[in-house]
Batch of 2 targets.
Target 1
Amino acid sequence: MPDVTSALEDYALIGDHQTAALIGRDGSLDWLCLPRFDSPACFAALLGGLDQGHWRLAPAGAGACTRRAYLEDSLILESVWETAGGTVKVIDFMPQRDRAPDVVRIVEGVRGRVEMLGVLRLRFDYGRVVPWVRRSDSHHVAVAGPDSVWLRSDPAVHTYGQDFSTRSEFTVSAGDKVAFVLTWHPSHEPRPRQIDPYEALDHSLKGWRAWAARCRYQGPHRDAVVRSLITLKALTYAPTGGIVAAPTTSLPERLGGVRNWDYRYCWLRDSTLTLSALLLAGYREEAAAWRDWLLRAIAGDPAELQIMYGLGGERRIHEYELPWLPGYADSAPVRVGNGAVGQRQLDVYGEVMDSFHLARGSGLPAEPHAWQIQRAMMDFLESAWQDPDEGLWEIRGPRRHFVHSKVMAWVAADRAVRALEAHPELPGDIDRWRVMRETVHREVCEKGYDDTRSTFTQSYGSAELDAATLLIPRVGFLPADDPRVIGTIDAVRRELSHDGLIRRYTTDGDHGGDDGGNVDGLPGSEGAFLVCSFWLADALMLAGRRQEAETLFQRLLSLRNDVGLLSEEYDPKSGRLLGNFPQAFSHIGLVRTALTLAEDRRAD
Ligand SMILES: OC[C@H]1O[C@H](O[C@H]2O[C@H](CO)[C@@H](O)[C@H](O)[C@H]2O)[C@H](O)[C@@H](O)[C@@H]1O
């Protein structure tokens, strides 16, 4: 069996707001966790090879499709193959879930006659368990442990078992339609209710059209912005309002490297930034759902606040490895869970306070106990902001006094003060928070700024730089035309740029070493971190350097794959996307920069 999974940029995303799948240009569905984003994958070819589970549906003997695109502003993928015998298209989507998750694949003959081949290789528990498959009426059902998957196809399709896979052979002529519906269900329950795939298609398309029409942004990059917003919406777990950082685990930050992490959880940082992007683009319902998720998740002692939670607000996200999976492009280990869950990352308080501030300012109906939680968080932060932490990059080395964490402590105090200024009826000690705001500001400017190089540094007393300091003007810590901000923009550009794109900080691997002595405690290097380049574009724009910002934004747009998706990082040397895919952070960056550019134009 040829064991080739696709390049990352060859994948498109489909999903049902509870989980999501990746489908390659060759028609192979190589990643899907069922029933939730954080469940074990039943198709894990992405992290190994075809034997770890995949579902290919394409013309027999064909390679990559000739072209593909999402249907209008939707998450419904259409892949077209032009073959010698004719033209065929495959439409892939996951309908909005009623009870059970479904993947629908509709084959449509367009011209001539095309022989099709489907190969369904189910492997439960991240590629480890080969299920028993049997026929039951019009279905094939695969069962192992708690999982069962039902495959329904048209009667005209010849389906048989071979090499621990279920194969389907059929021919389509112009005008023919053949639908497959794959449904997951707990194995102890009777067969799930069947859906009509064509009705589901119609319903999904209408639903996405209506959703996309609510986007307030009308600027020149509307298609890119809407695609990013659809991607962010696809990363939202509808039953609770939680938002995952990405639907994948362990896509490497360097091919063949060990920087491989599980992103199928809700980070307060990534989610608050997603919420801001959605809110600014006009999506208040999602923002309200997420705010409610947040209030439930963080309820309790603010000292016990975690930096990430499970989809439902679960607290235990213990990290472990899956040794039987070779990893994407042999990048091991594959990890499930995330050890960063136990870290102290003080920036999170600032991000949460800022998102409540934005929600209040956007007229989102007030939630009575939100302020109570904010006050408790401020009480805690007043006593903790002077401590070292692991920072927003979740370093696995020793704690440090990260400048970005302190700046975000300033943001927390600032938003608390501004809330009381706007709503004097709320209880709280405005004078104390003003003092805290002032103290943090003074300390950061004294200890986190390097006069000789005219730049903010990564941490107090360090010579290293950090792309997160580009956020200083955006959060309002200093104006964009302050010489210290200008100096930081130029220093970050000079020292952290990789072919014009920005790394988050330097690693020893960047200088050829691989000894694990990095600030982040990890061996090797990584690519340019895409959201940092969007932050640079924002900072340039705020500083009045619009041409440079526009040029950088255009470059970033060109890094999206053919269906508009970005992963976490990019390697300018090989021209490859790296890291988990698609990643909320990068798409948030795209939306925010497009909005900032549009505002700047209006101001002209
Ligand atoms: O670089 C090491 C860390 O990498 C991951 O963190 C990154 O992803 C998070 C989710 O998008 C983001 O919030 C964080 O800012 C990024 O640094 C990983 O989750 C960590 O476990 C790992 O230590």
Target 2
Amino acid sequence: MRILEIREKTASIASPIANAYIDFSKMTASVVAVVTDVVRDGRPVVGFGFNSNGRYGQGALMRERFIPRVLEARPETLVDEANANLDPFAIWKAMMTNEKPGGHGDRSVAVGTIDMAVWDAVAKIAGQPLWRLLADRYRGGVADETVWVYAAGGYYYPGKDDRQLQDEMRSYRDRGYRVVKMKIGGTSIDDDRRRIEAVLEIVGDGANLAVDANGRFDLKTALAYGEALRPYGLHWYEEAGDPLDYALNAELAAAYPGALATGENLFSHQDARNLVRYGGMRPDRDYLQFDCALSYGLVEYLRTLDAIAELGWSSRRVVPHGGHQMSLNIAAGLHLGGNESYPDVFQPFGGFADGIAVEDGRVRLPDVPGVGFETKANLYALMRTLVEDL
Ligand SMILES: O=C([O-])CC(=O)C(=O)O
Ligand SMILES: [Mg+2]
């Protein structure tokens, strides 16, 4: 059993939306296909992966370092004999040969994207949905039947007024979501207060609304927003300050009684552990949002979950960023607290299986081998363009 080829290409996810920090007018993502020599139903098993929004395509790093290392490794060293399958841990180790510690940045995205495709292939070779394989291997066979999801959107874009923001949020609620998320910090605090109140007219209770500042604020502004947000009793206040400014986060946590959420821009188990050690995050109410597709993949995510468990954190406090099916599988198979969803933005990567509706804020997973990309027609059509000749 061996990996024959790893193909990648860059896809555009450009759109006019903006958060408080960046606009997405030139945003891209990498799509990867891991081609194996295993044949199922007369066709080679191919695992697919892609990286989450916000970090651009990583083709150059893949082509120059990570793909060659996998293909140069002796094939027998990448096999998991016990399970008669490929070994994601050995493949990960091969990719990370001669990589120094620290400085987790774009390479963690490149590795995470290939790792997603490897796990898709592994689950397909096993003939199981990934969520089932993960539950069997790591959680005594018990998977969650449904996963809590929330609808992320509420972006800024030119000409968008409160009425359009309300229509957007109403449409998420009409599609079965209970909790919605909107951007803050891209305008004045008074404007944001008005936008929040407009959305609360639609979703009612503050517990149905999360807000996301995308790391924009300095300490003073983070605290001022904390004061302004406090009376609303929001679901969470996300990424107030710079992702690596643990002291800012700790000061905010000491002042803000509601839930905080952060971690989407921390890309290693060491950084995740430092957030939990030094960021003042409270295990009884706050949320951790590490995204495997940006942070060296599921192999590293398992280490991250172990690292936070050692510090007393339940996996139920983890609600990944990224709105993708890979994290949905991890949430169901490894007992996380839920998953982000982008019902409308970042298509075709956002959203889950076609034909499985969100009901009362929860979604089921498809019962097909792998991550389930084949159940999302627009995404699978894009992935197939990598392997049209196979
Ligand atoms: O706007 C973005 O970069 C995405 C984001 O923060 C989120 O989904 O939480
Ligand atoms: Mg965010």
